[in-house]
Amino acid sequence: MLRLYNTLSHKIEEFKPLNPPLVNMYTCGPTVYDYQHIGHMRRYVGDDILIRALKTNKYKVKQVMNITDVGHLVSDADTGEDKMEKGALKFGLSVWDIAKKFEKQFFDSIDLLNINRPDILMHATDYIKEQIVFIKILEKKGYTYQIEDGIYFDTSKVPNYNKLSRQKKEDLKVNARVEVTGKKHPTNFALWKFSYPNGRSFDPTQDGARRQMEWESPWGVGFPGWHIECSTMAIKGLNTERLDIHTGGIDHIPIHHTNEIAQAEAATDKQFVKYWVHHNFLHIEGSKMSKSIGNIYTVEDVVKKGFDPLSLRYLYLQTHYRQEMNFTWQALEAAQIAYKRLLEEVAKLGKPKIARLPKPGTGEQGCAEYEGKFLQALNDDLNMPKALSIVWEVIKSDYPNSAKAESIFKMDEVLGIDLSKAKEKSKRIKVVASDNIKELIRQRDELRRKKSFTKADHLRNKIKKLGYLIKDTKKGVEIEKI
């Protein structure tokens, strides 16, 4: 029995989809204006684990993911540049080329992390007409108003507007801020933004350059707001006005997802989403990721430093998705060592005696008690740290190797860390030492070149005391964690 924490109810609930065994799931995808970093990727690994858990519980998942390639402004107060236009200026490319560049980078990253791709991928720019239709429905029902800047949604007409975040009204005002002239309330949000005042068509006598992305609408030339994209594409892609699951980061709760609910339920008069699943933040060395600090890392950065990307996935699994996670290179180093050891242990087991994996409920046996514990941890709001520990319990158990392999391969259908390829992967993965150890190795190499072998041996012993063995080979120095 799968149980999930529902942000809407603020409690863990038994999962009951609207039309079992089908599960309709919408995933907030990337805004493709810049690189997706390892904080973003933690969330997508979490979504992947959720889908694998649903399938393990015999549900049929239909997942829609959006690509935001227009309409996401740099400020949640409906001011500032569109992030896509800003990205184009930063990288010296067209908006369309920026979108292609960073969509590719996103999918390259999720492929490296063994994240399954969505069933349906939807780009905001492909559904402008549908978004206009959605806004017209809201307009007809009296939820919109027009100002010089664009068409806005009136949140005062929505009962329980803050039911997802449960923020107090005074906090909502502080968080939202009024920075747009004519906006009636801080929480009101843009459905359609005008490129030029009052939606006028392009006039070369006006100041400012024409936007790269803009469309004609019943209200004037402009582009859709960020929030309207997701509600429109979720309903269109899943072909239903009611979703089972909607996922995203916790930063989306107070504004983006709150506004999605408001506009969708105003348009349909139905509950938009039954279960909201949100993933917590990832910090770097105890600090928030920031370009000014220079602590934003991508999966590509991880690989360049010599780490296997699935070591990063292994590291993610060690922290519950609703807890903040602190990333350090030392933690990733430890995760790679643990992952390599797990691969080596699994490689010793060989293959299950049967050619295929046993299906749940058929009576075919593996390490049944551990499989039960694993499923129990999985169904306890995706307790992956516990689930991962049970894999190690199987390794240490007295079951026959073939039975261990059978159960571990089944567990890896959820973990997604390629344990079925343990033998080949364990040979490829190398121990990655910290910068301090690398510097000591460099100093030792320099001493050896100068034929100061006694001093070099002293450094070898120092490195050993720090937990590493070094071996000189024709290809260079190899290191091993003690």
Could you please describe the fold and organization of this structure?
With about 475 residues, the protein is an alpha/beta fold. It is built from 16 helices and 15 strands. It has helices at about 40-55, 85-90, 95-110, 130-140, 170-175, 225-240, 255-270, 300-305, 310-315, 330-350, 370-380, 385-395, 400-415, 420-430, 435-450, 455-465, and strands spanning about 5, 10-15, 20-25, 60-65, 120-125, 145, 150-155, 190-195, 220-225, 245-250, 275-280, 280-285, 325, 470-475, 475-480. Helix 2 (about 85-90) crosses helix 3 (about 95-110), helix 4 crosses helix 6 (about 225-240) and helix 12 runs antiparallel to helix 13 (about 400-415). It is globular.
Question: Can you lay out the helices and strands and say which pair or pack?
Answer:
Layout: E1 3-6, E2 11-14, E3 22-27, H1 38-56, E4 60-67, H2 83-91, H3 95-112, E5 120-123, H4 128-140, E6 144-147, E7 150-153, H5 169-176, E8 189-194, E9 222-224, H6 226-238, E10 243-249, H7 253-268, E11 273-279, E12 282-284, H8 299-304, H9 309-317, E13 325-327, H10 329-349, H11 368-379, H12 384-396, H13 401-415, H14 422-428, H15 435-449, H16 453-465, E14 468-473, E15 476-481
Helix pairs in contact: 2-3, 4-6, 6-7, 9-10, 10-14, 11-12, 12-13, 15-16
